[in-house]
């Protein structure tokens, strides 16, 4: 897999220096964070609903083979084809073969992170098939030299209205528009022709339902319906094997949490449950339906200490609330999945040695696990990845030396106390009258873009001793 995850620090620095990006990323807290906080208050027992969601996701993952077999059996009974792909290359080969079999020349695509993961658009183009993204955000990125998404829910969150306006005017050869309603109308007019002339529609899947052999799709634009029940005679669902749920009741529980966690809505504008191709009595729908279920590292998480990551329902709440993501956006993470969930998934999917910085791309503040609707302990999983890096000797030598020196002092209380007092006084002196350290020796990563607050000169041990002494006197 081609990723740029090894360049996180360099890319993060570039994003921090991008004033326009910093302004655009404020939309995260202004829109998603506050909206989620209000939406979850509508659920009488939010924590109980989260517990139920965890139990239902765990039940599916605990017998994933059984539920996949059940899904396959019921999907085939409904007239659909079910195919399995071990890796990205196999997934794209299967889908391109489907396109060739049915003489497909144009494909309309609803937003799918798995299609980004397997680089499906590149595979289509190489085979002479035209892929057209129909999610507004994904469409904007596609016409902008196939720029990758920066968020799994709001892929173009890093751009503002003025950038999109200029891009539309250049690409569509139209007068520049400034109102959002005008821009969305222009996009609809452009995409309408693609919807009407496409031979195949490709979607992802928010969930697969084993008991009915169905796919559940959630959008706010309705483009998934245009990709599946309009002219395309072929519908391909591309998704990960972990998306299966046993029953419709399980789906109902998860749907109470997904839109609220993702966009702060009690329910998305469009919610579809599709079960197979068009039947004789149906008024619309595709003639052929295929499911391509992708492994690509997912079974490697089953039974491991990282299995909880497979509970993820791709709501994006963890990145919306992450102080690191809020400042650098998604592109700095270098692959499809950004934020805390990406910092765990990417090293597991592409190899820990190929994403050395990502387990450290977090403050471990815990906010991501607090807001996760299925209670994935993301900080704990990040710490486990750091431990594995240490065990495999993947950390730089100077870090090993530093930790070794700290461990030497920490196991000798008197030496540690003396060193802490000396360091505190030295840092206090370096802060001067303003109490701000502008250059920190061996700590340029801290002071390269911001001042470091100087300590007061008193250590925690000193203050603790004073408190205990005061209590004893009292």
Side by side, the strands of the main sheet go 1-10-7-4-2-3
- Integer average pLDDT: 93
- What is the rounded distance between the termini? 65 Å
Major β-sheet profile: 6 strands, parallel
Number of strands: 12
Q: Which shape, going by the Cα principal axes?
A: globular
Number of helices: 21
Residue fraction in strands: 5-15%
* Helix content, binned percent: 40-55%
Given the helix and strand composition, which structural class is it?
alpha/beta
Which stretches are poorly predicted, pLDDT < 50 over at least 5 residues?
A: none
Taking Cα atoms only, what radius of gyration do you get, to the nearest Å? 25 Å
Write the layout of secondary structure elements.
Elements: H1 8-16, H2 19-40, H3 46-62, H4 64-77, E1 81-85, H5 88-101, E2 106-109, H6 113-117, H7 120-126, E3 130-133, H8 136-143, H9 161-172, H10 180-197, E4 200-203, E5 207-209, E6 214-219, H11 223-228, E7 234-240, E8 244-245, H12 248-262, E9 270-274, E10 288-294, H13 317-321, H14 325-328, H15 339-350, H16 367-371, H17 378-391, H18 397-410, H19 413-431, E11 436-437, H20 444-447, E12 452-453, H21 460-473
Parallel strand pairs: 1-10, 2-3, 2-4, 4-7, 5-8, 7-10
Antiparallel strand pairs: 5-6, 6-9, 11-12
Helix pairs in contact: 2-12, 3-12, 9-10, 15-17
